[in-house]
């Protein structure tokens, strides 16, 4: 039985990845920071809460990260832990830098010292491209992050490359473009839209305030993307891969799909609020996952219409129960 350690296991990607690994026969350990709120609801919704071995720890604390690596003796480590909400990184730039940047070093150093044969996956992000330098972004596109989140993630990405090249670790990064699901946090724009559409339909909300709805994103399904993570660590040679659908869509169009699913016109309810604009906007992100498709044999299976309708159905049920 293979052993895996997942940081950020209580997040959207952590829940889908844990389910994938359990289905493949892994013993799954999850690094969990102590919280007063219920942080395991996603694992519960996936029906796997009782199947995880939980380890207390925090990415900002090197000692707890080391203990987690020693206790789990992992064949594979998936670092999904992050302060992952871009807007919040402007309010918490130091915390974001510590968790999303320095925390990666804590984990890599623990692996180097105590478990050098472990294979490592780093969750990088399309936000590292920021002010895009190419119409479609791939592994060779220069980075130009436009938020503290993007900057911190870029540190995590390059320290992973550095440890791979300096110490020979099997360390790979997945440069994932936006990926969503019914397990997405309510603070993210896709869930914000689907939740609001459900509430408006059921008479529990009057309007939805958003920022730049003409921003374009490459949206995929988290359940598809975690398969790419696993495939990266099955390769003989570690490397970095863009994971994306190759299709870009505006927030406006995503709103149309969501509201239309419940028989509403988004134009009657969506209001533009300047307070929701970022200090430095990222206007367009569009990924080229040709390398992942060629080397890993991976490709996205879920289109945006299917994804948003899946999220709408889940939110309609949630809101009805409130």
UniProtKB/TrEMBL annotation:
Transmembrane segments: none annotated. Catalyzes the conversion of GDP-D-mannose to GDP-4-dehydro-6-deoxy-D-mannose. It catalyses: GDP-alpha-D-mannose = GDP-4-dehydro-alpha-D-rhamnose + H2O. The lineage of its organism: Bacteria, Pseudomonadati, Pseudomonadota, Gammaproteobacteria, Pseudomonadales. Its cofactor is NADP(+). InterPro entries: GDP_Man_deHydtase (IPR006368), NAD(P)-bd_dom (IPR016040), NAD(P)-bd_dom_sf (IPR036291). Residues 5-311 form the NAD(P)-binding domain. PANTHER family: GDP-MANNOSE 4,6 DEHYDRATASE, GDP-MANNOSE 4,6-DEHYDRATASE. The keyword Lyase applies. Its EC number is 4.2.1.47. Keywords: Lyase, NADP. GO terms for biological process: 'de novo' GDP-L-fucose biosynthetic process. Belongs to the NAD(P)-dependent epimerase/dehydratase family. GDP-mannose 4,6-dehydratase subfamily. This is GDP-mannose 4,6-dehydratase. GO terms for molecular function: GDP-mannose 4,6-dehydratase activity; NADP+ binding. The gene is gmd.
